[in-house]
């Protein structure tokens, strides 16, 4: 069984579907409703964990129970036609995936059941060079360019699309891979 720290599940967008996460707050089960009103934190209806599946060009998602453990037999395949998917991040009911083979970042809408909405995936960025790590902070998407020896970042609009005119790269970083905040 896999357990995750409650603060990560509630405030880091990697594992849950959020409308927003305004404040990082430790929230226990009894205080969820009160804190959601008092601190303006939107709580996920359900918690999911996602993993890339490079061999089959898709993703796997599993539902987490109230103890943040993976529910037995809840894992399912979702999405398709990724080109050696590597990194991923969930943000505002969207999932963003780095694709090593075609040097692109793809964005997909997520449904309430955690799966990728059919035909919602679209290429958002084509300037990567073997993009691997990906994360989002304050409406900016950050990604590592493993073969480009850089970290790139772009602003996101209100719909979760990349504003490519605002993209920048930080060079001279030798083979960056993963990232976190």
Note down, in words, how this protein is organized.
There is one protein chain. This protein is mainly beta. It has a domain at 6-129. Helices cover 8% and strands 38% of the residues. It has helices spanning 6-11, 32-39; strands spanning 47-53, 58-64, 76-78, 85-91, 94-99, 104-109, 122-125, 131-137, 140-145, 150-156, 162-170. Strands 4-5-6-7 form a four-stranded antiparallel sheet, with no helix packed on it. The chain has a four-stranded antiparallel sheet with strand order 8-9-10-11, with no helix packed on it. Strand 9 and strand 10 (150-156) form a beta hairpin.
Separation, N- and C-terminal Cα atoms = 25 Å
Number of helices: 2
Q: What is the rounded Rg? A: 16 Å
Percentage beta strand: 35-45%
Structural class: mainly beta
Number of distinct beta strands: 11
> pLDDT average, as an integer?
76
- Stretches where pLDDT is under 50 for at least 5 consecutive residues are 1-44
Shape, per Cα inertia axes: globular
Strand order of the largest sheet: 4-5-6-7
Report the biggest beta sheet as strand number plus sense, adding barrel if it closes.
4 strands, antiparallel
The ordered string of helix (H) and strand (E) elements is HHEEEEEEEEEEE
Helix proportion: under 10%
